[in-house]
């Protein structure tokens, strides 16, 4: 685990336990907010997560992370749903949410823009296919900075 960020180490340690519970690890954030550090774990499952799911993963993650002792400072652990406008991080996310409204911000300009919104038409050849008001646009996966479901 040498050379990995706290986020990467946390993901590596807790993912097997999250999968074992029939859940998906959507994202991990580790950041300082004011004087305090926060470790936020976002989980999901078809039909949405319940409070019991969050509580269970919080207890499991807390135990696993305490034993591993990989976070040097005091932090607050939060486990929650990613919400209705959940981030899309992996190719599988783009396949799963085909037909949904999304927003995408790219790392560099494509056709003169970095911001796109529309209906996710598919994922093919490592590209996100987005149906916009201007027509279809293909966005290479490696150029996506941020993407999320969007409730219009």
Architecture overview:
The structure is a single chain. The radius of gyration is 17 Å and the shape is elongated. The model has no long low-confidence stretch (mean pLDDT 94). A five-stranded antiparallel sheet has the order 7-6-5-4-8. It has a three-stranded mixed sheet with strand order 1-2-3. The chain has helices spanning 6-20, 51-68, 91-96, and strands at 24-33, 36-44, 76-80, 101-110, 113-124, 127-132, 135-140, 144-149. With 152 residues, the protein is of the alpha+beta class. It folds into two domains: 6-80, GMP Synthetase, Chain A, domain 3 (2-Layer Sandwich); 91-149, SH3 type barrels (Roll). Helix 1 (6-20) packs across helix 2. The protein starts with 5 loop residues before the first helix and ends with a strand.
Q: What's the CATH H-level superfamily name of the largest domain?
A: RimP-like superfamily, N-terminal
Helix content: 25-40%
Q: In terms of structural class, how would the helical and strand content be classed?
A: alpha+beta
Strand order of the largest sheet: 7-6-5-4-8
Percent strand equals: 35-45%
């Amino acid at each position: 685990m040498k050379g990995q960020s706290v986020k990467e180490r946390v993901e590596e340690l807790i993912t097997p336990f999250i999968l074992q519970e029939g859940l998906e690890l959507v994202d991990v954030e580790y950041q300082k907010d004011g004087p305090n550090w926060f470790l936020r774990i976002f989980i999901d499952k078809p039909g949405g997560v319940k409070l019991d799911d969050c509580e269970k993963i919080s207890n499991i993650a807390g135990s696993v992370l305490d034993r591993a002792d990989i976070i040097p400072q005091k932090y607050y652990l939060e486990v929650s749903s990613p919400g209705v406008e959940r981030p899309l991080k992996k190719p599988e996310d783009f396949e799963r949410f085909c037909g949904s409204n999304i927003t995408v911000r790219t790392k560099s300009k494509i056709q003169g823009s970095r911001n796109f919104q529309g209906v996710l038409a598919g994922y093919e050849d490592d590209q996100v296919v987005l149906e916009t008001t201007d027509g279809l646009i293909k966005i290479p996966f490696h150029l996506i900075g941020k993407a999320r479901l969007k409730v219009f």
